[in-house]
Amino acid sequence: MNQIEFQSLLERYNNGKCSSEELALLENWYNSFGEKNKINSISEDDFILYQKLIWKNVNGKLNLMPNQQQHKRLTLWAQYSIAASLFLIISFGIYYSIKWKSSNTEMQMAKSDVKVKDDLPPASNKAELVLSNGKVISLENADPGLVATEGDVRVEKSGESIISYKQGNSDATVNNNATAYNTIRTPNGGKWPAIELPDGTKVILDAGSSITFPVSFSKERKVNITGQAYFSVIHNSKKPFLVSVQGITIEDLGTEFNVNAYNDDLSVKTTLTEGAVKVSLGNQHSNIKPGQQVLASNNKLITKEVDIEEVIAWKKGLFQFNHTAIDVVMRQISRWYDVDIVFKENVANLTFTGNISRNLKLSRSLEMLSVTGLVFKMEGKRIVVSN
C-alpha cells in the first residue's frame, strides 16, 4: 500500500465509510511491517495526525450511548471498529518515524495543541550515591573503576552505568560493614539502569526513586525503596531477600518483580514477572504468581491479574497506557521530564491509550497526548494543561 492509498483509506476510516474488508486491510497493512525499515514510510508528524483522527473516531462511537450501557449495546461492527481504532493507536505509537512531509491544515492544528517556549530532553542516566558517612557522589560523573570503599567492600562503576558492590572475604568485612548503609537515588529527570547489590541481585531505578541497603548482606538481605524499582533477585532460601516500602514487606521466593511506590500515588503496587513473592502488610499476607499484582492501599492488600508488559514498559524505554487517567499519565510525565503540572480544568474523566517512547523530547510526547483533545502549554519547567 503506497502513501496515497493509505491516506485515502485513513480518511474513509475517519468518515466511518470503511467496510469490514477495509478494516482488515488496515490491520494486514500494519502486520506487513515486520522489518523496521518498512515502517519508516510514516513520519512522526503524520503519525500524530492519524492518531488524532482515529482517537476522535473512537470517542465519537463511545459517546453514542450512555456509559453504563456501552458494553451491552455496542454492535459487532462498532466493537470491531473501536478495537481496530485502538489497535492502530497503540501499534503506531511504537513505530512512528521519518520521511513524509505534510502541509495539511489539520496537521497544523494538531501541532498547535502544544505551545512550546523551551523544549526539555527526556530523562538520562543520573543518580547520586550516598555513603554511610554522608558523602554524596555523582554517579553519572564518576569515572569507570573504583568509585568508593566501605571497609573491604568496593563500589565499582563499569562502562557508563553499571554500579556493583564487590564483597570482601575477610572477617573484618562482616564486622565493620554489618550496619553500614548506602543509598542510590535518582532525581526527577534521572534514571539508573544497572545496580548490582552485594549478593548479585540486580536493580533498575526509575526517575524519582531510591534504594537503601546494607553494604554487606552478612546478617540479612533487606532493602528499602521509594519510587519505582525492578528487581532480579539471587535466591537464597536460608537468607530471604526482603524489600520494605511504606510499611509493606515483599519477600522473594526466587523472583523477578516490579515495585511501584511513589509517594503521590494512591497505592503501592508489587507485580511479579517470574518466580514467586509474598507481600505482607501487618497481619495480612498475599502470595502471588507471575502476571499478578498486589495493591496495598488503605491498609488492605488486593490481588489482581495485570498486563506485565504494561507494568514494566518503563524499563524498556516506553510509556505504555491503557485507558489510563490523564492525571496518572501526567504524573509519569512530570517525573520523567522533571516538570510541574498545572491543570486549568477538571480532566478527571479523560483517559489515554497508547505507547510513547521515553526517548522523545517533552514537546513530542505532549503532541502524542494531544490526541485526547487537551492543550499543553510549556512554560519553562511547568506544563499548563487545559481543554
Biggest β-sheet description = 17 strands, mixed
Query: What name does the CATH topology of the largest domain carry?
Result: Jelly Rolls
Give the overall silhouette: globular
What number is the mean pLDDT?
79
Level-2 CATH architecture of the largest domain: Sandwich
Tally of extended strands? 23
Instruction: Please give the oligomerization state of what you see.
Output: single chain
Structural class: alpha+beta
Q: Supply Rg.
A: 24 Å
Secondary structure tally, helices = 11
Measure the end-to-end span: 36 Å
List the helices and strands and how they pair.
Blueprint: H1 3-14, H2 20-31, H3 36-39, H4 44-62, H5 70-73, H6 76-95, H7 105-111, E1 114-115, E2 124-125, E3 128-130, E4 136-138, E5 145-150, E6 153-158, E7 162-166, H8 171-177, E8 181-185, E9 190-196, E10 202-205, E11 210-214, E12 221-232, E13 241-245, E14 248-261, E15 268-281, E16 284-288, E17 292-297, E18 300-305, H9 308-311, E19 318-325, H10 326-337, E20 340-343, E21 351-357, H11 362-369, E22 375-379, E23 382-386
Parallel strand pairs: 1-22, 2-9, 7-9, 12-13, 20-23
Antiparallel strand pairs: 3-4, 3-8, 5-6, 6-7, 8-11, 9-10, 10-12, 11-12, 12-14, 13-14, 14-15, 15-16, 15-17, 17-18, 19-21, 22-23
Helix pairs in contact: 2-6, 4-6, 4-7
